[in-house]
Amino acid sequence: MSAIIKVSNLSKQYREVKAVNDISFTVNTGDIYGFLGQNGAGKSTTIRMLLTLIEPTAGAIELFGRNLYSHRKEVLQQIGAVIEKPDLYKYLTAYENLSLFAKMSGVAVTDKKLMDQLEQVGLTERAHSKVRTFSQGMKQRLGIAIALIHDPQLIILDEPTNGLDPQGIADIRNLILHLSRHQGKTILVSSHLLHEIELIANRMLIIDKGKKIMEGTVAELVDPARTMVHIEVTNPQLVMAWLQNSRWSACVQEQNNNVILLRMNKPQVPELTAELVNAGAHIMALQPQNSLESYFLSLTTENRHVDTFTN
Predict the structure, then answer these.
(1) Alpha helices for the chain (secondary structure H)
(2) Which of 27, 166, 179, 198 is least surrounded by CB atoms within 10 angstroms?
(3) What is the pLDDT of residues 77-121, one digit of tens each?
(4) Class of domain 3-217
(5) Running DSSP on this structure, what letter comes out for residue 246?
(6) Which residues, in sequence order, are bridge partners of residue 83?
(7) CATH 3.30.70.980 residue ranges in the chain?
(8) Cβ–Cβ < 8 Å for 117, 156
(9) Torsion of Cα atoms, 177 then 181 then 186 then 189, to 10°
(10) Per-residue confidence (pLDDT) for residue 256, from 0 to 100
(11) Is this model's pTM higher than 0.85 or not?
């Protein structure tokens, strides 16, 4: 499988702040590649270097097998990108925006091509509505339509679901999956919403404070032996006493009022549940959490801004 993006030892220094610190990663043809990290981790800085919007302090970037800076024009012609919120002309319609950006890109398009593009992002019925009347989710979808107008091989989306409601997030998620499965696009998508990336990405990179923590597939990154089990019971003292004298004692992590937290291998959860019931535990809820989010938090030492990981 050929590499679309190959980043080697990339760094960006702003005076005393190292925004990106010696990261390397590879995005292969056909990937939906998740670029994950907390706000301020260095995701947007890295993407801006991939698009030549800022220069790296050190390191190398190859796109489509070519050095980015010596083949800048040819390389960027094969990329479509939406960086944060798309820049749109609010007093023009969706159709007029798309037509204008196509002309600015030097792309000759027909009326049918423009309408097909709007249909692809679910905006056919609003093609002739002013963009100022659009929700943020609709603006994001129009931005993606603009990024696709020249039929790029690689799509780069920087925090495409920022500020969207649950329906808007779902719309963007489904659009990304459609572009990958039905059009064969390679997609790099950055986000701090780990659950969303877990739903769509086949490979991903986790960074923190500008440093690469881990790269791989969801299956590789989420170890079933690290499953966290939250148990809510009405008789916590009895249950804790039983757990501490059982084979599960080493799994107990903490107790907070009626909630007991254990770490264990996921296939063991049914055995634990059955034994708890037999021991007289009054279980109100039992929830295994083996998500990318819990894995990420287990890797970061300071667990800064945990609230940014909730939808």
Answers:
(1) 43-50, 72-76, 94-104, 111-120, 136-148, 166-183, 194-200, 218-221, 236-244, 269-278, 292-299
(2) 166
(3) 999 999 878 889 999 999 999 999 999 888 888 999 999 999 999
(4) alpha beta
(5) S
(6) 158
(7) 224-290
(8) no
(9) 10
(10) 86
(11) no
